[in-house]
Amino acid sequence: MDFKQIVKDVLLTEAKELEKAATLVSFDIEKAIDLIINSKGKLIVTGVGKSGLVGTKIAATLASTGTSSFFLHPTEAMHGDLGMVGKEDIVLGISYSGESDELVQILPHLKRFNIPLIAMARNPESTLAKYADVFININVEKEGCPLDAAPMSSTTLTMAMGDALAVCLMKKRNFKKEDFASFHPGGSLGKKLFVKVDDLLRKDNLPVVSRETKLKDAILVMSEGRLGSVIIEDENKKVIALLSDGDLRRALMNDNFSMDCKVEEIATKNPKRLNNKELLASDALQIIEDYKIQLLIVTDENDKLVGVLHIHDLIEAGIK
User: Fold this and answer.
1) Is the pTM of this model over 0.85?
2) Nearest by Cα to 314 from 283, 274, 272
3) Quick count: other Cβ atoms within 10 Å of Cβ 30?
4) CATH: 1.10.287.690, 3.10.580.10, 3.90.930.1, 3.30.2310.20. Which one for 197-316?
5) Rounded to an integer, what distance in angstroms lies between the CA atom of residue 268 and that of residue 274?
């Protein structure tokens, strides 16, 4: 049995249904968008079975892209949860047949409260479609299922229609990546746009020595600091140099190397530093990568040490 061919056939079948639907967009999308945009309430998605599962995903996508939305199961709605639907809300009902008993039962109650209804179904003459203010056709000619029974192409199309609706709403609202990140503060984009250097800064027990410190003593401080470097300050507590393990290895190659020399003699003078701890951590990472360093020193306007930012801290925090 050629399973690779089976996979190919399923993907192509579903892709063809999506492509066909893209050429037959005849529903009043402008009206659907206006209903949602002008609503002062929420967009409530409802459906049962596979339609309900897809509806849950659609509601989540809408909620994360600027449209206040949640999923409501029709059965729960008939047993008290219908009270979650406010008079200013809109309902997106999903049923491939348009005749799902649980969903059809709540339609008269929605109509009684004049709740606008957007419907996704295959049949424009179905009960769901007839109740709807806007009907979105999700009919497919062939399911991915070899028995043409289990919903596959139809659920794929339904989910894609939900995505298309979400994108239309994003465009209408001029929804930007900063807005998306505000709904996902823990995600990679949220971290990139909101986490600042100060949030990840190491400020305590830093490996700092004076310029008069002997190298052998500075190495001890470096080992205890566990940053692979030691920061060197002058008599006014201003940062003037940085001794890295790379500096130390290079110094060891010199014939006149001495452990009793002053640490400043082999350190990197005027190391790369940052005097803005409010800078985005993602921008600080770019500086670290551009200069091929591991440790970024953060100072105040007087060149006095505020803290350090290590590349490992950025990586562990998920900054990319």
Assistant:
1) no
2) 283
3) 11
4) 3.10.580.10
5) 16
Residues 143/150, Cβ–Cβ less than 8 Å? yes
Domain regions of the chain by residue span: 3-175, 197-316
CB of 299 closer than 8 Å to CB of 306: yes
Tell me if the domain spanning 3-175 has CATH number 3.20.20.70. Answer: no
Give the contacts of 95 (CB within 8 A, at least 6 positions apart).
Answer: 47, 48, 51, 103, 104, 119, 120, 121, 126, 128
Sequential pLDDT tens for the chain (320 residues):
899 999 999 999 999 999 999 988 776 888 999 999 999 999 999 999 999 999 999 999 999 888 999 999 998 888 878 888 888 999 999 999 999 999 999 999 999 989 999 999 999 999 999 999 999 999 999 999 888 888 999 999 999 999 999 999 999 988 887 777 666 666 666 666 678 899 899 999 999 999 999 999 999 999 888 888 999 999 999 999 999 988 989 988 888 889 999 999 999 999 999 999 888 888 888 999 999 888 999 999 999 999 999 988 888 888 87
- Reported as half-sphere exposure (CB side, CA atoms, 13 A), residue 165 has a value of 35
DSSP state at residue 320: -
On whether 73 is known to bind a ligand per the annotation, the reply is yes
Maximum pairwise Cα distance, the chain:
93
C-alpha to C-alpha distances, 284 to 98, 228, 289, 293, 312, nearest whole angstrom: 54, 19, 9, 11, 12
Bridge partners, residue 308, by sequence: 202, 297
| Nearest-angstrom CA–CA distance, 292 and 295 | 9
